[in-house]
Design goal:
transferase; Four Helix Bundle (Hemerythrin (Met), subunit A); mainly alpha
Length: 140
């Protein structure tokens, strides 16, 4: 498929799966280490609440928050991109590059890899800026 709608749908599903994986990653570390910060969760397994989250959970939470700052913007711009029919031939490249950059950003954040995390972030932001320009160009 070459339609922008198709690639928008693919990117949306892949981004959902990535965010779901972050949540599962957090749960995996909490459960395997039986370490829970929330008192009711700790009590469920007969433990005291931890004073702070595990380092892996903290990193995953930062990735999640960063996604919440970037993915909704991409999704909104993607809808506008499709609606105004802005450069449909570039949609696959822009949507999948943004998605790949978000995956790489998360992996680099979890692994503590700099400067690659920043590079991935900049690539993703670059995609959204190009999308903005193409949307405005389609309107003019």
């Amino acid at each position: 498929m070459d339609s922008a709608v198709y690639w928008y749908a693919v990117a949306s599903v892949l981004l959902f799966l990535k965010m779901f994986a972050i949540a599962a990653y957090q749960g995996f570390h909490r459960i395997t280490k039986m370490t829970f910060k929330t008192p009711e969760d700790a009590a469920l397994v007969g433990r005291e609440a931890a004073k702070e989250e595990l380092p892996q959970v903290q990193r995953a939470a930062r990735a999640w928050l960063n996604d919440l700052e970037n993915i909704p913007i991409f999704l909104a711009l993607g809808v506008a991109y499709v609606w105004v029919d802005a450069a449909p031939g570039l949609a696959a490249w822009l949507f999948l590059t943004f998605t790949g950059a978000r995956y790489m950003h998360t992996l680099c954040l979890l692994a503590g890899l700099q400067p690659w995390r920043t590079v991935a972030y900049i690539v993703g932001v670059g995609c959204t800026l190009v999308m903005c320009g193409l949307i405005l160009g389609a309107l003019g």
